[in-house]
Structures are given as C-alpha cells and as structure tokens.
Specification:
Number of domains: 1
Largest sheet: none
Number of strands: 0
Helix content: 40-55%
Number of helices: 5
Shape: flat
Radius of gyration: 18 Å
Length: 94
C-alpha cells in the first residue's frame, strides 16, 4: 500500500482544480511531505533482491506514516489543542 506519491496523470484526475489548490496532500502525513519516487524504487529493489528472500505474503505500507496517523476510530487526536487534552485528563482522573 503506498501513500501520496504525486503523479501528474493520477493527481490531476483525483484532485482537479480548484480542489487541488485547496488541499495539501502532505498535511495528513506525519513526515509532512509526499513520497519521493526514489523511496518507492528503493522498496521495489529490496523486494526483488536476495535480501528479502524470507519476506513473503506481506503487504508493505510506504506512506510516511499516513495510515497510522489516519486509521481507526480516533484518527483526529492530533488536531486536539493542549486545552482539550487538559480537559480529557481532568475527566479521566475523576
């Protein structure tokens, strides 16, 4: 599974203007950037090399942490302010 690796053909269809100028694809990625093609190529090179001989049946996620940051029920916890966290802590300690 791979995350935001922008290509002109795919992204111009997925995010047509004016939507594209309003979205920041790196905003939901903990590394705060989109993937570089060399990183995807490095993963592919590893998977076809002898170094990965024992890797099989695996789904490799290469997305800068986006899946872990946005998956699950509590995917908006990163947007909470310090004040909100303080309130949560007070509620938990009752």
């Amino acid at each position: 599974v791979f995350g935001p690796f922008p290509t002109e053909g795919a992204w111009s269809r997925l995010f047509p203007e004016p939507l594209a100028s309003q979205l920041d694809p790196a905003a939901s990625v903990p590394l705060q950037r989109v993937g570089q093609y060399q990183e995807l190529a490095n993963l592919a090179a590893y998977l076809v090399s002898d170094f990965s001989a024992y890797v099989n049946g695996e789904v490799v996620t290469i997305d800068g942490g986006e899946w872990l940051n946005g998956a699950g029920e509590f995917n908006k916890l990163g947007a909470l302010t310090p004040e909100m966290w303080d309130q949560i802590e007070k509620t938990m300690r009752r």
